[in-house]
Amino acid sequence: MSTTVPSAAGVPNPKPLAADMEEWDEFLKGRYREGRSKEDFRVYDKQAQPGVAEFYRLNHENQTVDYVLGKEREYFRLQKGMKTIWEAAEFLNTLVDDSDPDTDLSQMEHNLQTSEAIRRDGHPRWMVLVGFLHDLGKTLCLYGEPQWGVVGDTFPVGCAWSEDIVYHEFFYPGSTVDADPDSAGQHAASGSAARKGNPDRNVPEYQTKYGIYEPNCGLENVHMSFGHDGYIAEVMKPYLNIEALYMLRFHSFYPWHRHGAYDYLANDQDRAMLPWVLKFNQYDLYSKGHAKPDVAALKPYYDDLFAEFLPERIAW
Fold first, then answer.
1. How would you class 44 by CB atoms within 10 Å of its CB: exposed for 0-12, middle for 13-18, buried for 19 or more?
2. pLDDT, mean over the chain
3. How far is CA 79 from CA 33, 43, 73, 290, in A?
4. How confident is the model at residue 227 (pLDDT cuts 50, 70, 90)?
5. Nearest to 132 by CA among 112, 150, 117, 151
6. In the predicted structure, residue 62 carries a pLDDT above the cut 90
7. Which residues face 90 on adjacent strands?
8. 275-314 burial, b for 16+ CB within 10 Å, e for fewer?
């Protein structure tokens, strides 16, 4: 059964998504299918499952500058102990909910599906490693963080929100989460209160184009909404190349790598790394299925892979 996750101190911790975030993964696969127009995105969002919309409401209301800076101070110091990669993956496995009727795969097996797809296509060994590592930051849930603070499309905080952020309207107050109660996919959970919006909307500096940043300052200098992407990138920063770190840190930054938003904060390095992020993203979205990888058979290969790039135990 799934692990009971305590609430982070002072922060609401509802779990609107079914089956430990599988619902969000499925939403992404559909939303970012190639060829969709902006109008297609709006239609797709309107028809999403109620839990997905409720998740984004909580994410957009709570991912403030103060929240992000606080979480960076808490987690980017990497003081959660020393673990091997296998130990971290086994730790993450406790998130599996065996009541989910659609999958019986563990988190480790999902990671292996991604890395094995990358390996089959002949990409460099460091990219295979990224495929295995990219979701290990979801261990944040096991430290007590709410789902909305672990997964979700990421975006800069401290400057104006792009309209290309999914459910952009949830940054602002509204009468209800569901603007169209007659739609097939109602956005609000039953009995949901009016959405309150993100309090950063009341800070004038945060609502300007550049906000607290300088033009073309580089994404490495931008505070992103907090989640598993930034956390795993910090864990791996001492060990992996820059292409790998961009894949880890920005694989959920869809407004940038799918829509071209926030280019005015990007620099030449970011633009040079963008093709690598896009290359990885197709595996992140579309490599996961129902076929179970043989973990025991694959373990010797991954033992060698981990030893090639990483020390035996690393700080989390």
1. middle
2. 83
3. 38, 43, 11, 35
4. very high
5. 112
6. yes
7. none
8. ebbeebbebbbebbeeeebeeeebeeebeebbeebbeeeb
Tokens read off for 207: 């609502």
d(CA 87, CA 150): 20
Provide the pLDDT for residue 50. Answer: 72
Tens of pLDDT, residues 250-259: 999 999 999 9
Residue 18 reports pLDDT greater than 70: no
Look up residue 171 and give its two tokens. 């940054």
Sign for the pseudo-dihedral over CA of 170, 175, 180, 181: positive
With b meaning 16 or more CB within 10 Å and e meaning fewer, what string describes 95-113? bbeeeeeebebbbbbbbbb
Q: Beta-carbon neighbour count of residue 220 at 10 Å?
A: 13
Q: What is the mean pLDDT of residues 48-76?
A: 91
pLDDT tens, 287-303?
Answer: 666 678 999 999 999 99
Q: Which residue ranges make up each domain of the chain? A: 22-310
How many Å apart are CA 111 and CA 113, to the nearest integer? Answer: 5
Distances (CA, A) of 250 to 74, 81, 162, 166, 296: 20, 25, 16, 16, 31
- CA quadruple 17, 7, 154, 161: dihedral sign: positive
Pairwise pLDDT comparison (44 vs 86), residue with the higher score: 86
Give per-residue burial for 239-257: e unless 16+ CB within 10 Å, then b. ebeebbbbbbbbbbbbbbb
